[in-house]
Design goal:
The chain is α/β, with parallel strands linked by helices and 353 residues long. The protein contains 14 helices and nine strands.
Length: 353
């Protein structure tokens, strides 16, 4: 099937740098596209061609309404659109307009990121689980800022375990807050990326935004709040249960973590792993799992994540093979259960005799 879609003004951002946006559509929809003046000639299977036509028509409609697209925005939108045939460019853009992220415009860069944002809007408790660089923390902070600016909540609570500090906290200079601040730095970085420094400082001073280690949450009830537990894989089961039961009325909570990077001492169970088992199937809780395809850092990070996954899988297989070789051939350590029973019966008869 072959069609021609008129684009008109705004063709350059649509194509992207070195036509990278166009290549996303071609590879994702299995089509071929060719620029003809201010139009795109599209050829391929009917489903792919019609899907591309729908996306391009949405694009021209939005441009006609005055919508400005950056190259990065379109690149992110197109990645979501080729992965999810149920959504549309119009819906993605309208959804982004409703979210006020301060000085940033944030578009999901993968289907899982889109599902993550939708889940945070729909559910009061969301778990974002996956490797580094997938945007778990950044997007959660963005949604918290949006909820605060739109007056959906009155404060933001950002917390994480200070596991790396351990017992050495006492040797660091400063107050307890100053000692744990280095471990909360990623949360501050996300805040400063979305709000002006002066505004963040004012909100911190007034405790409208609170950044604190998880130990500071005990005994509190967090009403009208947006709560984020970051690095949850390093919480203990007791800490996880304690924090989850702090959630009060008109509050949302997002729990983020990477179960492949647990820094707890040997023998200590991760509170995140336990929560996944305990809470699965409960209505009103959403679990969003990210993988290497959602990594939005340097392209090498995707390869690093995949390499570690292959390495861990090979180690598991080798361990299972070693355990199988070391296991005894007979689970009863060579004893025949029937012979054992007969012997016992004989012994009893002998004793009775």
């Amino acid at each position: 099937m072959k069609i021609c879609v008129q684009i008109g003004p705004g063709i350059e951002p649509l194509l992207g740098t070195r036509d990278e946006n166009l290549r996303i559509l071609e590879e994702g929809l299995k089509i071929k596209a060719r620029l003809v003046d201010n139009a795109l000639e599209i050829e391929g299977d009917e489903d792919g061609v019609l899907r591309a036509e729908s996306i391009l028509e949405d694009y021209t409609t939005l441009v006609g309404r005055g919508q400005k697209f950056t190259n990065g925005d379109l690149n992110a939108y197109f990645r979501v659109l080729v992965a999810d045939p149920e959504t549309s460019l119009l819906r993605l853009v309208e959804s982004a307009r409703k979210r006020n992220f301060g000085k940033k415009t944030i578009a999901p860069k993968s289907l899982n990121q889109q599902r993550y944002l939708d889940a945070i809007e729909r559910y009061d408790l969301v778990f974002g689980i996956g490797p580094a660089g997938t945007g778990k923390t950044y997007l959660a902070v963005a949604m918290a800022v949006s909820a605060l600016l739109n007056k959906q909540v009155s404060r933001i609570i950002l917390t994480r375990p200070a596991v790396e500090a351990g017992e050495r906290l006492g040797f660091l200079p400063g107050t307890l807050q100053e000692k744990v601040n280095p471990y909360l730095r990623p949360l501050y970085d996300a805040l400063y990326d979305m709000l002006d420094v002066e505004k963040v400082e004012r909100l911190l001073e007034r405790n409208i935004i609170e950044v604190a280690p998880i130990a500071f949450m005990r005994g509190r009830t967090l009403n009208d709040s947006f709560i984020i537990l970051d690095e949850a894989q390093n919480s203990t089961p007791e800490q996880m249960k304690m924090l989850l039961t702090r959630q009060g009325f008109n509050s949302k909570m997002v729990v983020t973590g990477d179960i492949t990077q647990i820094d707890l001492p040997p023998g200590r169970q991760s509170g995140l792993l336990e929560a996944i088992e305990v809470l699965k199937g409960i209505k009103g809780i959403s679990f969003i799992y990210f993988d290497e395809r959602d990594v939005v850092r340097h392209s090498l990070v995707q390869e690093i994540v995949k390499a570690y996954e292959r390495y861990e899988q090979a180690k598991r297989q080798a361990r299972q093979q070693r355990q199988a070789l070391e296991a005894p051939a007979n689970p009863d350590n060579g004893r025949n259960p029937q012979l054992g029973a007969t012997a016992n019966a004989t012994a009893c008869l002998g004793a009775d005799g």
